[in-house]
């Protein structure tokens, strides 16, 4: 049974968030509205942050007072066109608290101004920066929601292919891994999805990868090779459009010999983790992600 907080939050998502994600609304307007709405939520108490730049990439270091070397590189969602530090800082901080890990949250470049592979280049630069700062790959988890989940997977694939030290694990929340949108849930869950819509997603996918690049394995990691990747935990809602992306990715990872766990949750929606400051179902999911990160990363 859904909590009372879930019922309230569901109304907010349907009435306030979903209308922002509209193919007829200019991208700049979508960005401003999402930042204004999500950015209004303050960081949890006891959490501090400081702005920095990594090769001209704006970033936020979120200090949850973790007394260890564990760190999360957090890649925000937003279909590669919207989303920012502002929209995701509270969400990232709560994952850090659940994981007893400080967090590096970056404003990677967005389409349409900066199409693929700009965002991937920025994610790789941020990961390399952590290594230069003295963190071992064993200390680092890469996490991402929606498009950020797809980008986290692409980043790990690129790190592997460059023979750079791999991160300890990946945490993917409702990941968007197939920009061609070939998964059956895109159509099957069209009536149960309360946040996303396929028209908007297709438009923003084209902004990011172009019509000829949608199946590029580093833009759509569904089409990539998973062998040699670190352990992966994935969460998805049973009712959302991206259910097939998560299921197919997990199956493919297991077939490649990767440790991959998927949990599909009922009575929630796309990236419900965002509401962990209010909604018990979200707190429960983030607690599971935090336990996974703790069990797969070194602290020193």
UniProtKB/TrEMBL annotation:
Pfam families attached to this UniProt entry: Abhydrolase_3
Highest taxon in the source lineage: Bacteria
Xref: SUPFAM superfamilies: alpha/beta-Hydrolases (SSF53474)
Gene Ontology molecular function, alphabetical: hydrolase activity
Record key words, sorted: Hydrolase
Residues forming the catalytic site: 146
Residue ranges constituting the Alpha/beta hydrolase fold-3 domain according to the UniProt record: 72-273
PROSITE patterns reported in the protein's UniProt record: LIPASE_GDXG_HIS (PS01173), LIPASE_GDXG_SER (PS01174)
Family designation: Belongs to the 'GDXG' lipolytic enzyme family.
Protein name: Alpha/beta hydrolase
Organism taxonomic ancestry: Bacteria, Pseudomonadati, Pseudomonadota, Gammaproteobacteria, Alteromonadales
